């Protein structure tokens, strides 16, 4: 039956359908373009498929929807291997069927998103499950033995289906002109044992003993060059991706945005081949690249002439060299490199964080960074004199010296004085250079500090800046507060006033923001120092720790009163006081 006959039948059915009062069946009168738009706006392909079941006309249109989003349903917590496999098979069959219908219709898929969840279904019987227990439990119940639900055979079968599906969907997208591809396919891996290394999550699936089973691979060999692909996100749950010389002939002529996540690059030359794959030769239009949780066995050199934004998050590679002349934004977080070499003369924004003890032995810059206006990095306050992990701030100091135009700096302050060390080395004074060009400073205090000992590090840091206009100090929910909230907040400090013993100049400061306060003496001392030095101050925004305010309301309210009186005595006036927040501005 052709589409015209179907339209006539649907219209006739609409006329025969009784209506309530004078209501008109508006759905049947919708044009096909509108119906396609409705189906395309469905949050999930399952919803769109249900809507298409209204009639054959809707079903015909379902095969022409340009945007498809597939998301699996959670599996019950008590599921065994057979149920996990059945759920995966059903999801794969549904996706494959929908893609086959679209291919037969001749209508292109512009956007394809496939996400297979590994979460358990939350049932009412699990209501006594605490949030902490949920955080500690692995997201995927792929375990063996008494505590682990799935056997080796279950794991192997799930891996076969998962790898085959992922490989097939990538091939389909490349062959059928998909413009946007998102594939989030967590492959079955062994759950990380408590106390194991972070890298355990990305170990090869090799059976009980390493090398016992040959790992299955996702590979790009034999795939056509996806001429129209503009954005792609591949998240493969720690699977091994094989890149061969044959795959290097592939060209992503239209690709502008690429994200590679949770992937282990196979073979010794994998890093080199991946760099070739994302280079300007293969991706001439690539502007944004994100590499997250990738594992390389060796060094990587990235040459990308037009790349403007790069995120490198939790990536382990021996040596990383970036040759990116057009790069404007760079974020490196939780990375581990022995050598980091950077050539990015147009860089404007940079965030740099390394794992504890994994700072590069060599940090190399090809010239200065004259356009750098915003920098986000981690600076250590102290270390024990006998603590031989090198000078944590060396790389940061070198970077700061290269940024002559830097005006905005955000610092995560770490490295508290540890009680097991009787003597400490100051890593800021006489090491971090003065930064008179910086006018905006944000300090995020690490939760590694104690509530009464963060002041020494912050005070030392503030001595490096003499021209601040804006200052933000954010205090965390300190670990010790978990006990203090039950016993009452200890507000008195038994240490010297760090603020007055340091040469802090805030003469140009106009606005200050303080968050996470609990009302300790040292917080109040800091406020006094600010007011004594910052004669141009126009605005003060204070926010006390919300949980402290909720559980120790009377104490916090009293400290808010104290802070407010101090500010009013300096000629300021209250503009807003709501719950745990207080804002004061300069009076007329």
UniProtKB/TrEMBL annotation:
<dbReference type="InterPro" id="IPR055312">
    <property type="entry name" value="FBL15-like"/>
</dbReference>
<dbReference type="InterPro" id="IPR036047">
    <property type="entry name" value="F-box-like_dom_sf"/>
</dbReference>
<protein>
    <recommendedName>
        <fullName>F-box domain-containing protein</fullName>
    </recommendedName>
</protein>
């Amino acid at each position: 039956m052709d589409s015209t006959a179907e339209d006539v039948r649907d219209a006739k059915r609409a006329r025969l359908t009784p209506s309530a009062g004078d209501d008109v069946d508006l759905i049947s009168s919708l044009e096909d373009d509108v119906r396609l738009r409705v189906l395309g706006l469905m949050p999930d392909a399952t919803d769109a498929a249900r809507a298409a079941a209204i009639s054959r006309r809707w079903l015909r249109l379902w095969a022409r929807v340009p945007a498809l989003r597939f998301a699996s349903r959670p599996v019950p917590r008590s599921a065994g291997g057979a149920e996990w496999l059945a759920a995966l098979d059903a999801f794969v069959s549904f996706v494959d069927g929908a893609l086959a219908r679209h291919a037969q219709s001749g209508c292109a898929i512009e956007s394809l998103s496939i996400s297979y969840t590994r979460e358990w279904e939350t049932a009412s019987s699990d209501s006594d499950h605490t949030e902490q227990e949920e955080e500690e439990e692995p997201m995927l119940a792929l375990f063996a033995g008494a505590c682990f639900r799935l056997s080796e055979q279950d794991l192997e079968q799930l891996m076969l289906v998962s790898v085959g599906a992922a490989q097939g969907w990538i091939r389909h997208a490349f062959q059928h002109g998909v413009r946007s591809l998102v594939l989030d396919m967590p492959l079955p891996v062994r759950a990380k044992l408590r106390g194991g290394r972070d890298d355990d999550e990305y170990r090869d699936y090799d059976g009980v003993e390493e090398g016992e089973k040959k790992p299955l691979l996702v590979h790009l060999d034999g795939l056509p060059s996806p001429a129209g692909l503009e954005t792609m996100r591949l998240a493969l749950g720690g699977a091994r991706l094989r890149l061969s010389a044959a795959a290097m002939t592939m060209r992503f002529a239209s690709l502008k945005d690429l994200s590679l996540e949770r992937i282990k690059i196979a073979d010794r030359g994998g890093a080199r081949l991946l760099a070739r794959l994302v280079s300007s030769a293969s991706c001439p239009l690539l502007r944004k690249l994100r590499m997250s949780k990738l594992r390389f066995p060796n060094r990587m050199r990235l040459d990308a002439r037009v790349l403007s934004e790069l995120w490198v998050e939790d990536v382990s590679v021996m040596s990383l060299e970036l040759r990116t002349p057009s790069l404007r934004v760079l974020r490196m977080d939780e990375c581990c490199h022995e050598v980091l070499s950077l050539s990015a003369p147009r860089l404007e924004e940079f965030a740099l964080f390394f794992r504890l003890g994994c700072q590069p032995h060599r940090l190399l810059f090809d010239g200065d960074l004259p356009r750098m206006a915003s920098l986000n990095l981690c600076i250590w306050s102290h270390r024990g004199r006998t603590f031989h992990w090198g000078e944590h701030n060396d790389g940061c100091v070198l970077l700061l010296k290269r940024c002559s135009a830097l005006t905005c700096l955000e610092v995560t302050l770490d490295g508290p004085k540890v009680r097991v060390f009787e003597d400490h080395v100051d890593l800021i004074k006489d090491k971090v250079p003065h930064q008179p060009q910086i006018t905006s400073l944000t300090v995020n205090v690490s939760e590694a500090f104690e509530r009464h000992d963060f002041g020494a590090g912050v005070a030392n840091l503030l001595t490096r800046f003499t021209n601040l206009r804006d200052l933000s100090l954010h205090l965390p929910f300190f670990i010790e507060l978990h006990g203090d909230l039950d016993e009452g907040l200890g507000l008195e400090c038994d240490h010297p006033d760090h603020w007055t013993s340091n040469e802090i100049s805030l003469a140009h400061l106009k606005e200050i923001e303080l968050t996470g306060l609990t009302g300790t003496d040292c917080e109040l001392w800091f406020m006094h120092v600010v007011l004594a030095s910052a004669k141009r101050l126009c605005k003060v925004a204070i926010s006390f720790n919300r949980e402290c305010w909720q559980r120790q309301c009377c104490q916090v309210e009293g400290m808010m009163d104290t802070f407010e009186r101090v500010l009013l005595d300096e000629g300021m006036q209250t503009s807003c006081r709501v719950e745990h927040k207080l804002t004061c501005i300069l009076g007329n």
